[in-house]
């Protein structure tokens, strides 16, 4: 892991220090910024500062570009990096290169069954939370997804506000 730390003192906002860092791990580069109250630093009260490890990402796996774009735009409002994959293979490659905290995935993908991808992701990264979605959902499919390790299932079309709220609750 490489850590580059840049400290910038802000003259316009008193008592705030901006810390910018880049963590390079495997082939994944994540960037994050955190503000720390200078008083907290000076008085040893670091628990009052934001946690620099709070940066996370979500991988949206959807083969239909209009839906993928809509989901990305809706999720961009959350405090996480939104990454995209069009196929199951792309999703697995993405998870190998730079694991995401959350995966939002369609059941029907052009190259693989989304439930097979779910199983592989859960095997590779048991800590990753996977949310499935489908336009063709019945009770059996929902139960199968949850039995395979999905933490949630959204039937298309779904309310984007509900999805955002659900994902926010998982952060």
UniProtKB/TrEMBL annotation:
Keywords: Membrane, Phosphoprotein, Transmembrane, Transmembrane helix
SUPFAM superfamilies to which the protein is assigned, alphabetical: CheY-like (SSF52172)
Domain called Response regulatory: residue spans: 57-171
The keyword Transmembrane appears for this protein: yes
SMART domains reported in the protein's UniProt record: REC
InterPro entries xrefs: Bact_response_regulator, CheY-like_superfamily, Sig_transdc_resp-reg_receiver
Domain of life per record: Bacteria
Modified residues annotated as 4-aspartylphosphate in this record: 106
UniProt KW Transmembrane helix keyword: yes
An example Gene Ontology biological process: phosphorelay signal transduction system
Classification lineage: Bacteria, Bacillati, Bacillota, Bacilli, Bacillales
Protein name, as recorded: Response regulator
Pfam hit, one: Response_reg
Transmembrane segments annotated in the record for this chain: 6-23
